[in-house]
Write a structure and sequence with these properties.
This protein is α/β, with parallel strands linked by helices and 174 residues long. The protein has one domain: Rossmann fold (3-Layer(aba) Sandwich). 44% of the residues lie in helices and 13% in strands. It has 6 helices and 5 strands, in the order βαβαβαβαβαα. A 5-stranded parallel β-sheet has the order 2-1-3-4-5. Helix 1 (19-27) runs parallel beside helix 5 (119-131) and helix 5 (119-131) packs across helix 6 (135-161).
Length: 174
């Protein structure tokens, strides 16, 4: 069975930290599957997973890892699809080590990185990558973006109604 996004966790204990990845992918009706493989504890499974990516039709990989966060880079070295590194908080420096490991890759091994614990953004980035070749997904993303803009403008109006001196943007066409 073909899936669009492969979600890879460095540890089963990370499952609770990546819930928004699954929720967001499901919201946009994007197929995915989940694997738990560790770059340090099960490097043979990392290689096996990477070999399976093209066979399974995976178009984007989201790799979530904490601490040294070697998993996204290890996968990026082995696959020819975009890899999104999701650094997870924790450890002595609260995920900064994972963020740096994910974003400081050597030339030729690109990994896209999102913020520490930014599971929803990892899924949205995967959706945007997929939307390049999927007009229906692109339209769903645009609708969500417009809704976020509308919600923000509504909240700004509420501040104005409370008498706060809110900056006024010029309406379109003026």
């Amino acid at each position: 069975m073909s899936v669009d996004v492969g979600v890879v966790l460095g540890s089963a204990s990370d499952l609770g930290k990546v819930g928004p990845v699954f929720e967001t992918l499901e919201e946009f009706r994007i197929s995915y599957d989940v694997a738990v493989v560790s770059a340090h504890r099960t490097p043979d499974l990392v290689e096996e997973y990477a070999r399976s990516v093209s066979e399974r039709g995976v178009k984007v990989v989201i790799a979530a890892a904490g601490l040294a966060a070697a998993l996204p880079g290890a996968l990026a070295a082995l696959v020819d699809v975009p890899v999104i590194g999701l650094p997870l908080g924790g450890g002595p420096v609260m995920g900064v080590d994972a963020l740096l490991s994910i974003t400081d890759m050597p030339p030729g091994v690109p990994v896209a990185g999102v913020g520490i614990g930014s599971a929803k953004n990892a899924a949205l980035l995967a959706a945007r990558i997929l939307a390049v070749h999927d007009p229906d997904l692109k339209a769903r993303l645009e609708a969500v973006r417009k809704k976020m803009s509308s919600d923000t403008r509504e909240k700004i109006s509420l501040l104005r109604e409370k008498g706060l001196p809110v900056w006024q943007w010029k309406p379109e066409g003026e």
